[in-house]
């Protein structure tokens, strides 16, 4: 029992350090980039423009379908291990070579953007059509309606599912170990290979993930209360 406790005490700082250095930054950067991509994709998908814009809409639909229909682990392998074999003469003669950090950020961002795009699209469409018409009646343009009326409300509606997506992303960063990023799970694997205590190490890293996600869940609840404080409670 003492040896197990010693392993926990000595290993926790190493795993936590990997979380601060890799897990959390990867999750935050990927989510921000994915959210930007998601907003753009959602606006393209709900647009009623015709002509050449239909091509852009088709690309957006294909992108969302592709990343929601394939496993994240497979996406990571394609980007990191597969793209180096994509050799295009004059453009990529040696293939697309990405370091683990870039490959991980790119894949997590694209995957997050696909899921969040549908969340944001649904949130925008949930705003009553009457609000659009009322804004148009006082001379506001479509971009003004989106910026001043629709998007602020859609942000509040989409906050819970987007928060859940971020929490899921934090856990999904453990897959980055498969492309040699030394995040929390990878560190626990390395330590387990040294002390031959895989149950202890994997349970420890699971507990650290649980603590981190619990903090994020509390923050989600706080943000929901703050953004809903002006709403009338249901009787």
Automatic annotation (TrEMBL):
It is found in: Cell membrane. The keyword Membrane applies. It is a multi-pass membrane protein. Residues 20-217 form the ABC transmembrane type-1 domain. The chain crosses the membrane at residues 22-44, 65-83, 199-219. GO terms for molecular function: L-cystine transmembrane transporter activity. CDD domains: TM_PBP2. It holds the Pfam family BPD_transp_1. Belongs to the binding-protein-dependent transport system permease family. This is Amino acid ABC transporter permease protein. It comes from Lactiplantibacillus plantarum (Lactobacillus plantarum).
């Amino acid at each position: 029992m003492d040896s197990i406790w010693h392993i926990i005490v000595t290993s926790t700082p190493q795993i936590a350090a990997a979380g601060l250095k890799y897990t959390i930054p990867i999750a935050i950067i990927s989510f921000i980039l994915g959210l930007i991509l998601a907003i753009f994709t959602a606006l393209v998908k709900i647009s009623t423009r015709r002509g050449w814009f239909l091509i852009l809409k088709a690309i957006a639909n294909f992108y969302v379908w592709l990343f929601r229909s394939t496993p994240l682990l497979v996406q990571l392998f394609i980007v990191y291990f597969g793209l180096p074999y994509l050799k295009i003469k004059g453009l990529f003669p040696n293939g697309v070579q990405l370091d683990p950090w870039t490959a991980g950020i790119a894949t997590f961002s694209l995957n997050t953007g696909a899921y969040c795009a549908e969340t944001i699209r649904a949130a925008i469409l949930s705003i009553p059509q009457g609000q659009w018409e009322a804004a148009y009646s006082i001379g506001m343009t479509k971009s003004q309606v989106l910026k001043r009326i629709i998007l602020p409300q859609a942000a509040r509606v989409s906050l819970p599912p987007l928060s859940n997506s971020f929490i899921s992303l934090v856990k999904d960063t453990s897959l980055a170990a498969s492309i040699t990023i030394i995040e929390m799970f990878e560190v626990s694997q390395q330590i387990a290979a040294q002390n031959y205590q895989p149950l202890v190490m994997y349970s420890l890293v699971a507990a650290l993930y649980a603590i981190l996600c619990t903090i994020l869940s509390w923050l989600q609840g706080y943000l929901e209360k703050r953004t809903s404080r002006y709403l009338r409670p249901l009787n």
